[in-house]
């Protein structure tokens, strides 16, 4: 676990001027955000939200979480790998870590890495209704706030479940997903 420094534990009076103060305040203001989801597979809408989060927060952790309510297409390690490729191919700036969390609560991961914010992409009122209870429970459980982020409206109709369905029936998913994903889904290894 990465300890976050308690501001009240440090006497600032000797650091009133100069670069030390600046560095210290930057550290205090450092914010880690977690962008969680099933990402089965990652879509252009997800990538858009990840890029926006990376432009706002100091560190972004893209976290692949198993959702027991959904039937998975891809193994979790494959989803992580595809997100890594997509982030790299998109040349996204900022400090982005891609990983997975398969045991315990999402907020346990947040506490583990010192993340104070969860970022969720919101495409419609349906997403607001789905995400709001989770956001409140996550705040109740661990004091982690959720920020709802609006993706580019061009991606408003795109979902992983739609991509899974189109791919399963042999359709072209390239308008909806990063190239790494459409190439992977076209490969013979994927049925
Ligand atoms: O992409 P999804 O499937 O909509 O993502 C939902 C997900 C995986 C982020 C959500 O189900 C989740 O947070 N699961 C982790 C388990 C957890 O912490 N549950 C309590 C949240 S209220």
Please characterize this protein's 3D structure.
The chain has 191 residues and is α/β, with parallel strands linked by helices. Helix content is 42%, strand content 16%. It contains seven helices and five strands. It has helices at residues 19-29, 44-56, 76-89, 106-113, 125-142, 160-168, 179-186, and strands at residues 32-37, 59-65, 95-101, 117-121, 145-149. A five-stranded parallel β-sheet has the order 3-2-1-4-5, with helices on both faces. α5 (125-142) links the parallel β4 (117-121) and β5. α3 packs across α7 (179-186). The chain starts with 18 loop residues before the first helix and ends in a 5-residue tail after the last helix.
List the topology elements.
Elements: H1 19-29, E1 32-37, H2 44-56, E2 59-65, H3 76-89, E3 95-101, H4 106-113, E4 117-121, H5 125-142, E5 145-149, H6 160-168, H7 179-186
Parallel strand pairs: 1-2, 1-4, 2-3, 4-5
Helix pairs in contact: 3-7
Bound molecules: 4'-phosphopantetheine.
């Amino acid at each position: 676990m990465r300890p976050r420094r308690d501001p009240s534990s440090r006497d600032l009076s000797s650091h009133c001027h100069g670069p030390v103060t600046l560095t210290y305040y930057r550290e205090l203001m450092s914010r880690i955000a977690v962008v969680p989801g099933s990402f089965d597979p990652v879509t252009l809408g997800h990538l858009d939200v990840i890029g926006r989060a990376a432009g706002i927060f100091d560190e972004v952790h893209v976290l692949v979480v198993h959702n027991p309510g959904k039937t998975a297409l891809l193994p979790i390690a494959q989803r992580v790998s595809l997100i890594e490729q997509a982030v790299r191919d998109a040349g996204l700036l900022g400090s982005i870590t891609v990983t997975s969390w398969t045991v315990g609560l999402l907020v346990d991961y947040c506490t583990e890495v010192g993340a104070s914010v969860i970022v969720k992409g919101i495409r419609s009122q349906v997403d607001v209704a789905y995400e709001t209870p989770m956001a409140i429970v996550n705040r109740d459980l661990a004091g982690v706030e959720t920020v709802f982020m609006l993706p580019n409206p061009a991606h408003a109709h795109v979902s992983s479940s739609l991509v899974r369905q189109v791919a399963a029936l042999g359709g072209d998913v390239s308008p909806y997903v990063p190239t790494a994903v459409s190439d992977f889904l076209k490969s013979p290894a994927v049925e």
